[in-house]
Amino acid sequence: MSSYALEILAAGHDRAGFISGLESVDRYLRETARGHLEKGVSITRVLVEAGASTPKPVLGFFTLSSIVVEAKQWPGAPKDLPKQAVSAVLLGRLAVAECAQGKGIGSMLVASARQLARETIALTGGIGLVVDAANEDAAGYYAQFGFRKVSPESLRMFLPARSLGGGPQIPRE
Amino acid sequence: MKTKSATSRRGRPPGDATKRINARFPAGLAEKIEYAAALRGVAVASFIQEAVAERADRVIESESHWQLTRQQAAHIAAMIASPPKPGKAMLEAVKRASRHVVIRS
Predict the structure, then answer these.
(1) Which CATH architecture has domain B2-100?
(2) Structure confidence by residue, pLDDT tens digits, A12-45
(3) Number of C-alpha atoms within 13 angstroms, CB side, residue A120?
């Protein structure tokens, strides 16, 4: 019996009640996430108690979209990566409600995002999972899961597609 | 065609200015903006519009498009060539999620 369910953001989720402590992220969930979903810009999924009734309190959420990665050259690439653009999955935002912190919710969100990214890449291709850390603390958090900064001055991090496998499958319903 | 017009519009919003955005500025910043606009010889409103449109373009672009420097591309290529194996933290997270989470679609 699962305790939590990961659902695509919908009207039955209590967006207004979500407080992570980072106002820009809370506002995104409140005001922008559903619009982005409807327009196909990105997909936001929320973690709720499996048995919650509406309006369901949001314990945490993350947003995935696709991103085009371009480079004039890929120095030292294994088999020459194409000179034109390649795609990747972007984990743009991930946050845990203040009231749900300290329960490993964040790590389960990261694991879920990783599985969904792996499935997306298996279907449509992609070089890996890109994450935008909100600040240095967040960058440190992602680093423990294997994400690496792509340049020291940037908060954008990367995990290649072949690192997205391993471990048991998160079940679907 | 589309990209071309988007590029030429960069920093210069198209159409008539009809919509008002209310924003308060600290006195010091307001003076600085007025001074900078005067140096450029443009109206304060168009100075703000240009600066903000440029920044907005960059923010929007960064969520869908990533232009790598040579060094960044080298770093990513190296990671693709030898992908790190999932570590303890990731494997524990996956295990926990597989036990406690169900994905509803």
Answers:
(1) Up-down Bundle (1.20)
(2) 999 999 999 999 999 999 999 999 999 999 999 9
(3) 21
B94 close contact with A: CB closer than 8 A: yes
Distance of residue A107 Cα from the nearest chain B Cα, in angstroms: 5
Q: pLDDT, tens digit, for every residue of B1-10? A: 444 444 444 4
Q: Which domains does chain A have, with CATH numbers?
A: 4-163 (3.40.630.30)
Q: Which site among B61, B80, B82 would you substitute to test the A interface, given the most A Cβ atoms closer than 10 Å to its Cβ?
A: B80
Kindly report the pTM of this predicted structure.
0.83
- Write down the domain spans for chain B: 2-100
CB atoms within 10 A of CB A81: 17
B75 contacts A150 by C-beta, under 8 angstroms: yes
Q: CA dist A130 to A92, A113, B6, Å?
A: 8, 11, 26
Q: Is B66 in contact with A156 (Cβ distance < 8 A)?
A: yes
- The reply to whether A22 touches chain B by the CB within 8 Å rule is no
**ipTM exceeding 0.95, yes/no:** no
